[in-house]
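Pipeline run #58 for the internal structure catalog. This entry was flagged by the ingest filter as a single-chain record with no existing model, so it goes straight to prediction. Upstream metadata was stripped on purpose; only the residue string is passed forward. Reviewer on rotation: M.T. Logging verbosity set to normal.
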Amino acid sequence: MNKYKTLALNTVVFAIGNFGSKLLSFFLNYLYTGHMSSGVFNTKEILELCANFLIPVVSFSITDAVIRYGLDKNYDNRAVFSNAVTLLLCGLGGFLLLSPLLRLYGDIRPYWLLLVGYICVSCFRQLSTQFARARGFVKLYAADGIFCTLLLFLFNLIFIAKLEWGVTGFLLSVMLSDLCSGVMVWFIARHGRYFSFRYLDKELLRVMLRFSLPLIPTAIMWLITGFSDRLFIRHMLSDTAAGVYGAAAKLPNLISMVSTIFFQAWNMSAISENDSAGRSKFYSQVYDAYISILFVAGAGIIAFVKPLSALIINTDKDAAYESAYLFTPMLVVAVLLMCFNQFLSSIYTVSRHTQNSFWTSLVAAVLNLLLNALLIPKFGVHGAIAATFVSYFICYLIRIVDTQQYISFRIAHGRFLINLLILFAMCEVILHVKAMTALWLGLGLVIITLLNLRAILLTARKVLRRN
């Protein structure tokens, strides 16, 4: 089977398991906005971001090392997993000792014990599912995605829709669904056979830590870029504005979800093809198709932003949500840049230069903080969105140059810029053009589709080729 077909089939498997589940999770936003005011919804978002902020710290980002070295045939999976479990246990122990400090933040104080449980269980699930993926249990990994989200949906219906427990119900739903998921995968994949303290390998442990430790600040930097927007908006504007911003970000997150599904399959292919002769050509072809598909998807969401937003944002609880769709188009463009940065990060993963991933992320995070402070007082929520886009774009420019020294591959910079300019024009139409809006948006979608069709079709032919 050729490498393009392998990548495509792995993407399909992950899509079956993840896209349906992620789409269901995506529509839970309608449930949340229907049962929480914009202020309460913002508290839920802050707790979720706080968990995502702490998980890589508590786990030492060791699940990334599990994928990198678990897929590498030069390393013993028993040693990889035993090292990872030991590090996670140490991280969880330290976190439990320090967890009372979470009470210092007002929004977290009423929920800190539930948040601690959320973080611990999520770390366990990540390790269990990622090791299954590293061992080749791709179908189990995909099936678990559906299982976990169905449980999440069921628990949300009980705790939020039925019992009206709000933020408490959300935290309980995530914690219980993650626990069931992690335990199920652990026993079906029989991970217990791979863990023993006698399998610990100190040299491999040092290698894994050198790989994963730079990814901790990297993950934190990306979260700061998203988290700081809401904190700045909340304190400089209002809780309502922060809640509306959070709701507006849900639709762009659909692109991020699709990208993450592909990225799971791509990481496996990139590691497998790391030493192949045609590596540069493979990267060029895949990256060209990847950005083309995302540009078309982004244009499609912007073109239909108002009806799509109505599907996932319930305005019955709070009329403030009605304006959320106006902020979505530029957030879509920002998320596209984030996805391109994610692809380039795979080069750092494959080449084991994760420290470069850290410092490029640091540039984005610092720039985002500075621009938020400067732009939000003057431009409101649009200032936060502009800060996010600029920080992602600068990071992209740095990475597109820096990664070439590790894996050199061809990039169509001219087409990239034209796509970006057309998306900006479509965003302008949403905000300021009242006449023939549908016509201009449709025209933009058609142009972007035609501009990117050739790259998509070329890769499709590679996939369909027999060998």
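catalog note: The mean pLDDT is 83.
catalog note: Residues 3-464 form one domain.
status: ready for reviewer M.T.
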